[in-house]
Structure formats: structure tokens, C-alpha cells
Amino acid sequence: MVRHRFGEFLPPGVRWIFMGTFNPEASCNPAHFYYSRPQNHFWRLLPEVFGMPSLKNASYKEKIAFSRHKKVGFIDLIRSVEVPIGSECTYEDAFIDNKVAEWNDVFSLLSNIKTVEQVLFTRKSFKDIPNIRKRIEEVHSFCVQSDIKFSLLPTPARIYSDKKLNIWQKNILM
To answer: Of 20, 114, 13, which is closest to residue 71 (Cα–Cα)?
Structure first.
């Protein structure tokens, strides 16, 4: 059983919630906060959307301060997975899709926050992840019923590009 490394981060007055899939509590995971693995460009993209400098190499405290100031929150779909011993560091979505032990109750979380304007899921492709796709479809439906904007964003992992930044700028409420 591998649990999620972080609890949700939902500052007072949160307006935007970024939703990912899973961040394992494993020694091989270098992330100190949501989207903080070295190959991820989230902390470059998001501040640029707001016209601010990159926080890609910033400290945990700087990312928390930015998130509180901009009213940005974070949750993941999955709370824990059950994987074979030795696979704790394999956390690609296609691998963990059928290994979910516990889904995060994002519906209760979203129901209890009256300030949320938008949920943004950081993935656009759903190939080889039918269970995650189904869960995202349920979150999307919930958001529509709750009058919360729901957007799919290209993943911030792997590459940074002006095209990706433009898509993020067009899809994030300002």
C-alpha cells in the first residue's frame, strides 16, 4: 500500500483548484509539494499566467505563499494505491489506474468550499487510464451541477512551451 505524500492544500478563499492524480509517499519521490518534481514545469507556468516570475526552483515556503496569495489550491484524485513490492516508485497514471485502493473524496471537499470558481485537471489525454477517466468524468459532472468551471489543461510535466503557456492563460480564470 502506497499512500499519497501530501494532504490537500486548500487555503481560505480558494478560487482555483488544480487536480492531479497521485503523488506517492516513496523515498524515490523528490517532490516537496504538489507539482514539484524536477521535470515538472507547473511552477514556471502558473506564475507566468499571473504575470509573475517562475517559481520552478523556489522553496516550499515560497510556493505556499504564492498559492495562498493567489488563492490556488491542490488536490489529487487518488489517496492510495496497492502495488507489488518493488513498484512503489512506479507512479505513471497508466500503471496505477487499476491499482487504486482509495479515491480521494473530492466531491465532499468541493461541496464544502463555497469560493471555488474553477477546477483544473492537469491532463488532456486519457489513453490507457479508464478508471481515472471515469473518475474525472464524475468530477466534471459534479462541477457542472455545482456551477464550477471545469477545465482540462495540458500536463505541466516534461516540456515547457509558449503554446502550453497560451493554453493555460486562456483556460485559467483571472
So the answer is: 13
Span 29-48, pLDDT tens digits: 888 899 998 889 999 999 99
d(CA 42, CA 69): 17
Q: What is the residue-wise DSSP string for the chain?
A: -EEBSS--B--TT--EEEEES--B--TT---SSTT-STTB-HHHHHHHHTT----TT--HHHHHHHHHHHTEEEEESEEEE---TT-TT---HHHHTT-EEEE--HHHHHHT-TT--EEEES----TT-HHHHHHHHHHHHHHHHTT-EEEE---SBS---HHHHHHHHHHS--
Q: How many CA atoms lie within 13 A of 90 on its CB side?
A: 11
Confidence of residue 17 (pLDDT cuts 50, 70, 90): very high
Please report, for residues 44, 53, 113, 125, the alpha-carbon distance to residue 162 in angstroms, rounded to integers and kept in the order given: 11, 15, 33, 20
Backbone angles phi, psi at 45, to 5 degrees: -65, -55
What does the alpha-carbon distance between residue 88 and residue 78 come to, in Å, rounded to a whole number?
A: 15
Question: pTM for this structure?
Answer: 0.94
**What cell was used for 56?**
520552478
- How far, in Å, CA of 150 to CA of 121, rounded? 8
pLDDT in tens, 81-103: 999 998 988 888 999 999 999 99
